[in-house]
Design a protein that fits this description.
globular; eight-stranded mixed sheet; Alpha-Beta Plaits; pyruvate-formate lyase- activating enzyme; 16 strands; about 450 residues; about 15% strand; alpha/beta; Histidine-containing Protein, Chain: A; 3 domains; 14 helices
Length: about 450
């Protein structure tokens, strides 16, 4: 691989003890730690990851900060991907998103061509903060003409340079160039952070400078992990109390009110660009528009409307994509369960699938599935997947969690609600149990049982 794209201060090494992947930008909110380690601190697959809702992340370079530690040969990378248990030819792929495809657009686009030659039919997505020169835009257009489904996502949310040291001008120009070339481009307003870039003036500037050039906009929040609080304090932009270091999750923290505010500002500007909550939804909609695909959102986010009416989605999603997602939810549950069983057997997991009265949801009893598994089953079935722990498992984990937070011997009661969500009832007359206690219990339980739980105070006898 040519070295000329490397900045002179980057040191190219080959040290297997150094972990990656990484990125040269050093943004304060970098979530590299979250993706590169599992909950026990063990190393995950270093260059292929499934913890992104838009698709499988594929990376040819491993880095630590500005140090490249490994480069994976193309033949090795492609072989690993094609044999990856969660890969299928229809799966969207995010290329170099642990680094940035702009580090070497020549190679990033070359990988897309090679994947197409191997029969990949899903979208190939590039998430970037960097520059894309006209010659690479021309190359991308040639790939699209050959049937490669490229989608570009440019991240821009108006954060100060102390937090995100990449010039806004670079990203605005990339969005404009991609749109002018007729290539699908999404502007990702993320991370949106309360108290930093959540004010109306910043939102208005971002929408004015770049939003009007994009085909779609997505809005995302902030991952909170071990070093997040410290990084922001050192940058001179401390986070407020809603971002707590003990709230390490697999989801970004963002209030619905902030998404509503962005849509309000966009409407006041008469901005005719759909604003999506999820990247996978935006990719599905743009793929339909540009490539005439006919697929619902791969993760069935439409289940947010429990009655299947898609009222929330109707606020922003194009009618053609709405009808596609709605149709997917109308399929017989027996058909969906059969597909899910095939996937679970293939992965070698024990399973029991419970029918749901929530439209578009499958519950896997005692699955304890990770995001990688739930995302894959969702993609294969078209239904949202949630874990449903058995009574015995949840009882054991609740006892352990109460002991962890200092409430040994505390009584509780478990009730399975009609919507297939467990209710954990704690004694209302015990002074030690406060709202903070419930939040601590919720954190420990949902971390280990990987399920949606409700909590309440009441009679446990």
């Amino acid at each position: 691989m040519p070295e000329r794209f490397l900045n002179k201060k980057w040191k190219v090494v080959n040290n297997t003890k150094l972990c990656g992947p990484g990125c040269p930008y050093e943004c304060c909110y970098c979530n590299q730690e979250l993706f590169d380690r599992d909950e026990n601190g063990k190393r995950n697959s270093p260059y292929i990851s499934t913890k992104t809702d838009a698709g499988i992340s594929v990376n040819s370079k491993l880095m630590v900060g500005k140090t490249i530690t490994h480069r994976i040969p193309d033949d090795v990378l492609l072989a690993e991907l094609l044999n990856f248990p969660y890969y299928s030819p229809e799966t969207p792929l995010l290329m170099e998103n642990f680094n940035d495809p702009s580090l070497d657009w020549n190679h990033s686009l070359k990988l897309a061509a090679e994947l197409s030659n191997f029969g990949h039919r899903g979208e190939i997505i590039y998430i970037t903060k960097g520059k894309i020169a006209p010659k690479y835009i021309d190359r991308a257009r040639e790939l699209v003409k050959k049937g490669v489904k490229l989608v570009f996502i440019v991240t821009y949310s108006g954060l100060p340079v102390a937090i995100e040291p990449i010039p806004a001008k670079t990203r605005i120009q990339s969005i404009q160039r991609l749109k002018a070339a007729g290539l699908p481009v999404i502007m990702a307003m993320r991370p949106m952070i309360e108290g930093i870039n959540s004010n109306e003036a910043t939102i208005n500037t971002v929408l004015q400078e770049a939003g009007s050039y994009a085909d779609a906009i997505t809005v995302g929040g902030l991952f909170v992990y071990e070093n997040t609080i410290r990084n922001f304090e050192q940058a001179g932009h401390p986070l407020d109390d809603r971002y707590k270091p003990d709230q390490l999750t697999e989801s970004k923290i963002i209030d619905d009110s902030l998404r509503s505010e962005i849509r309000r500002v966009a409407q006041s500007r008469n901005l005719q660009v759909p604003i999506f909550d999820h990247t996978s939804c935006a990719v599905a909609a743009l793929s339909r528009e540009y490539y005439k695909t006919n697929r619902p959102d791969r993760l069935a986010h439409s289940i947010r409307d429990n009655n299947g009416g898609l009222e929330h989605c109707r606020q922003f999603c194009p009618d053609s994509q709405l009808s596609c997602c709605a149709k997917a939810l109308e399929r017989p549950l027996a058909e969906i369960k059969s597909k899910a069983e095939q996937v679970l057997r293939r992965l070698g997991y024990p399973y029991e699938i419970v029918a749901s009265n929530r439209t578009g949801v499958l519950y896997i009893v005692n699955g304890d599935l990770h995001l990688s598994e739930t995302f894959f089953i969702s993609q294969e079935t078209g239904f949202h997947v949630e874990n449903l722990p058995s009574y015995e498992r949840l009882s054991e984990k609740t006892t352990n969690a109460l002991e962890t937070i200092g409430l040994c011997g505390c009584q509780f009661k478990l009730i399975l609600q009609p919507n297939n969500v467990w209710m954990v009832i704690l004694p209302e007359n015990q002074k030690l149990i406060s709202q903070e206690t419930i939040e601590q219990l919720k954190f420990h339980l949902e971390k280990y049982v990987r399920a949606t739980l409700n909590f309440s105070l009441g009679n446990v006898n």
